[in-house]
Specification:
The protein is an alpha/beta fold. It has twelve helices and 17 strands. It is elongated, with a radius of gyration of 23 Å.
């Protein structure tokens, strides 16, 4: 464990570490004065960014060098990448007598992540910051511009995430492929419907996907954060391709759009009850769907993963399967800000609401797919998901648990969702 930062973990370190023992040859030339800054900049434009080399110490790793040219008034720049949680650890090193900064990382060759740069971000730790410091960091990211890598043509949008508006995409040569994200040969239908929940006293749009060819669904997939799971995670396209490959049985999907995400998704009994007692009967009236809970799946990521787990916990008679990516299992009933962990931990909050619930309740007839990215925040997401998987196995649940070389990140989840569907829907 570092003196102030999060605990170290061998699996995490194997995926990503700052590499101070290696500098890219193009950067060395600038540092040692063999090229001028102008010549260096011209060279960069001819290279793919970031700069990637095979690690001479390990064929399973790549050395990845990020380079940034500071603006006239900027003092430093921070790399925001995947799930790197502490800005203080990811300040790029300045190159003397130039405006250029750089940082080299040793990444596992299957790593996949978004990244961006932000100038003059306060280099403070999330882990030991007070509530005010955490809020200041978040406010800075909302109010100040983040920049994609101008030398990397691959970019990705993150709908709804104001803090990370401009992002570049890094996919190393061993990353999960895009086979399930390509344009499908046959498309299912997606229709929009208005759904009112009396329990929640609100109304929202819900999208219903039906499989290609008019086939009768044998499975039902209920997906939270529906807006994002039809865009940056193109679930209808994924389902179309899986159907075309006969990798899953005919499956309908229901996309639940958000009304009040921060209130409804994290362990909200009323929300879970509305899904079971109002949404499911409404869907049965709307279209021909299977009835058995083993045919119903609830899926989501982060707060959406938490909502999926809680819906099955509250109503296993309806939802017999959970697909959860990086569930926000460090959430606590008493928490008022999902980022003020250090202050709340000092106040005695335990961050194990879901863990305690499953430890104390009878074992339920529910199957689980759990995953988390090894570039995610360790204390906030990796450790709680590992611990939850162990609890479930100890209690006799069927659990598929996976750790992937990515962050708290839709660009990872759109690659892993097809794997979960193939395994769970069969």
């Amino acid at each position: 464990m570092t003196p102030e930062g999060p605990p170290r973990d061998a699996a995490v370190d194997d995926v990503a570490q700052r590499a101070d023992d290696r500098t890219h040859p193009a950067v060395v030339d600038l540092i040692e004065g063999r090229v001028t800054p102008d010549t260096f900049e011209q060279r960069l434009t001819a290279l793919d960014a970031p700069l990637v080399e095979v690690d001479p110490k390990s064929p399973q790793h790549r050395l990845v060098t990020f380079v940034w040219k500071l603006g006239d008034e900027a003092r430093h720049v921070v790399l925001l990448a995947g799930g790197f949680p502490d800005p203080i650890d990811h300040v790029l090193a300045p190159i003397a007598d130039t405006y250029f900064c750089y940082a080299t990382y040793r990444l596992r060759r299957d790593a996949l992540m978004r990244y961006a740069f932000v100038e003059d971000l306060p280099a403070k730790r999330w882990w030991t910051s007070s509530t005010n410091n955490a809020d200041q960091l978040d406010t800075f990211l909302i109010r100040h511009r983040t920049d994609a890598d101008p030398l990397n043509p691959r970019s990705v949008e993150t709908p709804g995430l104001a803090r990370e508006r401009r992002n570049s995409l890094l996919e190393l040569d061993g990353a999960l492929d895009d086979r399930w994200l390509v344009d499908p040969r046959a498309r299912g239908t997606v229709t929009t419907h208005r759904f009112h929940a009396d329990i929640l006293a609100n109304t929202r749009d819900i999208q219903l996907y039906r499989p290609p060819g008019g086939r009768t669904p044998e499975r039902v997939l209920v997906v939270f954060d529906g807006e994002w799971y039809r865009s940056i995670v193109p679930t209808p396209t994924i389902l179309d391709n899986l159907h075309d490959a006969h990798a899953i049985p005919p499956t309908a999907a229901v996309f639940i759009n958000n009304v009040d995400r921060g209130h409804e998704l994290p362990c909200n009994d009323d929300f879970a009850d509305a899904l079971a007692s109002e949404l499911a009967p409404w869907l049965h009236k709307l279209t021909d769907l299977p009835v058995e809970p083993r045919a119903w799946f609830v899926a989501g990521s982060s707060f959406g993963g938490l909502a999926a787990i809680w819906a099955a916990f509250r109503h296993p008679e309806v939802f017999g399967n959970v697909i959860s990516a990086a569930a926000a299992l460090s959430w606590d009933w008493q928490s008022t800000s999902p980022r003020s962990y250090a202050a709340m931990r000092a106040a005695g909050y335990q961050f194990d609401v879901v863990h305690r619930a499953f430890e104390s309740a009878p074992t339920l007839p529910v199957r689980f797919w759990l995953e988390v990215g090894l570039l995610d925040a360790f204390e906030i997401n990796i450790e709680p998901n590992r611990r939850f998987a162990k609890i479930l196995r100890r209690r006799g649940y069927a659990v598929d648990y996976h750790e992937y070389p990515g962050g708290h990140d839709f660009v990872l989840w759109r690659k892993t969702l097809p794997l979960a569907l193939i395994e769970m829907l069969r």
